[in-house]
Amino acid sequence: MAHFFEGTVTVWELVKSGGWMMLPIILSSIAAMAIVAERLWTLRASRVTPEHLLGQVWVWIKDKQLNKDK
């Protein structure tokens, strides 16, 4: 099994071999992940759409009151 790990490169070795240019890449990646997490948290469906909206639309569909004016 030891021969399997021969020649493998660790993440730290990759970062070190990238030199100083790895710092902006890593910082940009962290910032991008933070923005994605914030957008997922802020724009979840429970916060964007009113609670009663889906129920009201289903009532309109059931009663055939839904038209292009609503």
Task: Spell out the blueprint of helices and strands.
Elements: H1 2-5, H2 11-18, H3 22-42, H4 45-48, H5 53-62
Overall description:
It is built from 5 helices and no strands. With 70 residues, it is an all-alpha fold. The protein has one domain. The mean pLDDT is 85.
Beta fraction: under 5%
DSSP helix fraction? 55-70%
| Nearest-integer average pLDDT | 85
Shape estimate: elongated
How many domains make up the coordinates? 1
**Order of helices and strands, N to C?**
HHHHH
What does the largest sheet look like? Answer: none
Low-confidence stretches: none
Number of helices: 5
Annotation, overall tally of beta strands: 0
The CA-CA distance between the termini, in Å, is 67 Å
Looking at how many chains there are and whether they match, the oligomeric state comes to: single chain
The radius of gyration over CA amounts to 25 Å
Based on secondary structure, the structural category is mainly alpha
Q: What is the structure about, briefly put?
A:
Helix content is 67%, strand content 0%. The longest helix is centred in the middle third of the chain and has 21 residues, at 22-42.
